[in-house]
Amino acid sequence: MMIGVSAPWQLRTGSADDLDIVGPLWVAVHHQHAQTMPELSPYVSDDHTWQVRRTLYEDLLTKPGTLLLLASIDDRVIGYGLAHIMAVEETWVADTWVTGKRVGEIESLSVLPEFRGSGLGSHLLTRLEDHLRAAGVDDLVLGVLPGNRDALRLYERLGYRPTWLYLSKFTGRD
C-alpha cells in the first residue's frame, strides 16, 4: 500500500461468530499449501482441514489476547489474520532463546489469491504485531511452509527470520 493512498479494504475485529466466513479463506491457505508443495500430497479434504482449523480457532478465541482481524471490500471478506499470546514455557522457544515471559504467535494470515500483492498481507501482519506489542508482547513467531515463497518473502521483509524447521517423513511419499 502506498503512503497517502487509502486502502481499498476495511478492517474489523472478528469473533467466534465470524468463523463461518473465515472458512473459505483458510481453505485458500490449504490450497496454497498443496500448490506450493505438491510433493507432500495427498492433502486432507477442504472439509477436514477447515473442521480441524475451526476447532483450533474456537479454542484460541476463548483466550485473552487473541485477535482475529477481518479484511473486506464492501460485504466480501477477502483476508484475515489471527494472533494469540502464549507463555514462553508453552512454546518451542524457551529452551533455546532468551525472550520475554510471553510470546505472540501469528497463527494464520490469509489473503484471497486475487488480492495477493496488494499490500493487504503486510497490513494485516502489521496490525496483528501492533496488537501483540500493545499487550506487552515483543517476541513473535509464525509458521510457513518452505515452498510458500511469496509468504516467506513477506515475512522476511517484515523482519522475521527462520528459527526452527520441522522435517517430515510421511508414508507413501517420495
From TrEMBL:
**Which residue intervals define the domain N-acetyltransferase in the entry?**
27-174
Keywords, sorted A to Z: Acyltransferase, Transferase
Instruction: Read off the SUPFAM superfamilies from this record.
Output: Acyl-CoA N-acyltransferases (Nat)
Give the matching Gene3D superfamilies: 3.40.630.30
Which InterPro entries does the UniProt record give? Acyl_CoA_acyltransferase (IPR016181), Bact_Acetyltransf (IPR050832), GNAT_dom (IPR000182)
Which CDD domains is this protein grouped with? NAT_SF
Which Pfam family is one of this chain's hits?
Answer: Acetyltransf_1
This chain's protein is named GNAT family N-acetyltransferase
Q: Which organism is it from?
A: Mycolicibacterium sphagni
